[in-house]
Amino acid sequence: MPENQRPSSSEPLATEAELTTGEVTILGRIEASSNGALLVELESGHLGVYKPASLERPLWDFTAGLFRRERASYVLARQLGLDFIPPIVIRDDLPLGRGSLQSFIDANFDLHYFELYGEPDLRDRFIEIAAFDLVANNADRKAGHLLLDQGRHLWGIDNALCFHAEPKLRTVIWEFGGAPITQELLDAMTHAADNLNSEFTQLLSQRERRTLVHRLRVVASMRELIDLDVDERPYPWPLI
Q1: pLDDT reading at 7 higher than 60
Q2: Cα angle at 205 between 87 and 172, to 5 degrees?
Q3: Beta bridge mates, 49
Q4: What is the C-alpha separation between 173 and 177, in angstroms, rounded?
Q5: CB 30 within 8 Å of CB 101
Q6: Is the pTM above the cut of 0.85?
Q7: How far apart are CA 157 and CA 24, in angstroms?
Q8: Secondary structure (H, E, C), the chain
């Protein structure tokens, strides 16, 4: 599907249960995606984004099976009480084989982080996402990966390049450096470090799980976002 062609979506979002079962019809390829993401229609009538493993572009630093990291990001966000990642499941019975299936976010795709970070009502949500990215070791938080829907709910998509065991953080969200992380989120990080969701054993390697727990404890002890000088900030490329 061309970048300038905006798909329509019924509301609300497809639930995890709707994504888990039912027929899926491929509508077209999302051209902006580098890993063969497909726009699909679910049996319920909702739209979804299907990322089959068979269309993944090999990366030198991440193992194949990025769909598992998409699901892991969703599982971690839910465990931390954050709802900025749309429902994502893994399915083996889709037209192009195993992959992730995510609820489609209907948003104004012309808006991105650099146009949104100054909005006062979004400040707390950006701080939450920045804290999540520290914990998840997000290597690819581009400006265009942050979407604002019609209800002004801020979403974060394309979270596949997370959870590497080596430091990989690359993000555009640096304007909130030094901002305090809420006590509720800090408590959730501490709890997750001691009680990591058992599904992670199917999604991440043992080393990746171990470093995830380490980062949860480190960020919980920091209590605020890291603050780096402009020339020291690791940004993704392209930025948007």
Answers
A1: no
A2: 55
A3: 39, 102
A4: 9
A5: no
A6: yes
A7: 20
A8: CCCCCCCCCCCCCCCHHHHHCCCEEEEEECCCCCCCCEEEEECCCCEEEEEEHHHCCCCCCCCCCHHHHHHHHHHHHHHCCCCCCCCEEEECCCCCCCEEEEECCCECCCCCHHHHCCCHHHHHHHHHHHHHHHHHCCCCECHHHEEEECCCCEEECCCCCCCCCCCCCCECCCCCCCCECCHHHHHHHHHHHHCCCCCHHHHCCHHHHHHHHHHHHHHHHHCECCCCCHHHCCCCCCCC
Specify the amino acid at residue 164: H
- Which residue reads 């902006």 in tokens? 32
Confidence of residue 11 (pLDDT cuts 50, 70, 90): low
Q: Residue 10 above 50 pLDDT?
A: no
**CA 182, CA 228: separation in Å to the nearest integer?**
20
Q: What is the mean pLDDT of residues 12-22?
A: 92
| Distance spanning both ends of the chain, measured CA to CA | 19
**Percent of the chain residues past pLDDT 70, beyond the cut:** 95
- Token pair 């966000």 is at which residue? 77
| pLDDT tens profile 57-86 | 899 999 999 999 999 999 999 999 999 999
The span from the CA of 8 to the CA of 22, in Å, is: 20
User: For residue 10, which amino acid is it?
Assistant: S
List the structure tokens of 152.
Answer: 């002004």
